[in-house]
Write a structure and sequence with these properties.
By secondary structure, this protein is of the alpha/beta class. The protein folds into 2 domains: 2-256, Rossmann fold, CATH 3.40.50; 265-325, no CATH class. It is 34% helix and 20% strand. The strands form 2 sheets. The chain has a 6-stranded mixed beta barrel. Strands 4-12 form a two-stranded antiparallel sheet. Strand 10, helix 6 and strand 11 form a beta-alpha-beta unit.
């Protein structure tokens, strides 16, 4: 099933908001580029006012991820990267998103259940327009299982973003449970390097770490909810999708999948099988060999259950860390 024309709309009966649907197809079309959402296949969406939408002359229940933030910070580019297609219009000069747009992926062939990726207008054009958009954001927070707020890594002023997040928290405290901060344009962090594919050098890694900490402090958001990435370069892109996936799996107000909770978690016994028996570090549950780590990393797919900092999550970074910290032979 695939619909690629601009005559499809979905309406929120709770708030009267309208979203233009740019594309509608089956979930397999998304999984070919974003495997992190494989758990959605045949999932069940709770049929409540939060998930209910009128879609043209019928209805649907949508598990929705909404993307918000300032104009020019890469919301639409991020969404296109997730979809593997340029469904959302982008422009390097001016804002293209003046209303709400979405793509819809049907996740259950027997029901009108959809996974929805929604792009909202960007703030930052004027204070009056921002007030209008913040109200729109607030309405859509209640209808969304996950909220991704996109910032730029190379931006220093958080005043407008702090205002938005504080306003949303005041209106809907539950946003804290579904909020992810995406620090886009990691490749623009100083000192710039032109490596292709982009791999941050040690100075950039240090500045990215400082940026993440400063963002957590300014926005009063746990750093486990923040990820530095680059939509254009693909850096850390799988990792931010894993964070989104984690939030969706754990938001019981919206969905439950067909897999049991015991299947969703990796058992300690499984970790023991991954970890070389002869190596003993303080973080005893972690596999220390880089190749074993990569297997472990690929199996977990659950962002917030990964080791806490300062341990790196990316297998390449892990290998460098291992070489610096591996046990010395006696």
């Amino acid at each position: 099933m695939s619909d690629n024309f601009n005559s499809i709309y979905k309406y929120s009966t709770a708030f009267g908001d309208r979203v233009e649907v740019l594309h509608r197809s089956g979930i397999n079309n998304l999984l070919s580029t974003s495997y992190q959402f494989n758990f959605l296949k045949n999932s069940n969406i709770h049929e409540t006012y939060r998930t209910y939408w009128k879609m043209n002359d019928t209805y649907a229940y949508c598990l929705q991820v909404m993307f918000i933030g300032q104009t020019g910070h890469g919301k639409s580019t991020t969404l296109n990267k997730i979809c593997g297609n340029e469904f959302f219009k982008i422009d390097d000069i001016k804002s293209c998103t003046k209303k709400m747009y979405s793509v819809e992926y049907k996740i259950n062939q027997s029901e009108n259940y959809y996974f929805s990726l929604c792009d909202l207008p960007g703030i930052g054009e004027s204070d009056d327009i921002d007030k209008e958009y913040i109200k729109l954001y607030s309405n859509m927070v209640d209808k969304s299982a996950c909220v991704v707020y996109v910032l730029r890594c190379d931006k220093r002023d958080f005043a407008r973003d702090i205002n938005v997040i504080e306003s949303l928290l005041k209106e809907n405290g539950k946003i804290s449970e579904k909020l992810i901060i995406g620090l886009n344009f990691a490749d623009k962090i100083e000192p710039i390097n032109r490596s292709s594919p982009f791999i941050p050098n040690s100075a950039q890694m240090e500045n990215l770490k400082k940026k993440l900490q400063a963002t957590a402090l300014a926005l009063k958001v746990p750093d486990s909810r923040i990820m530095c990435y680059s939509a254009t370069e693909g850096y850390n892109f799988n990792e931010i999708l894993e964070k989104i996936s984690y939030v969706l799996k754990n938001n019981k107000d919206f969905t439950s999948n067909s897999h049991s909770e015991s299947q969703a978690e990796i058992k300690i016994d499984d970790l023991e099988q991954c970890r070389p028996k002869t190596v003993s570090f303080p973080e005893a549950s972690l596999p220390w060999n880089p190749r074993e780590w990569e297997k472990y990393y690929g199996r977990r797919k659950r962002g917030e259950l990964f080791p806490k900092k300062p341990l790196p999550w990316n297998p390449n970074e892990w290998e460098e860390y291992y070489e610096r910290n591996k046990p010395k032979k006696r």
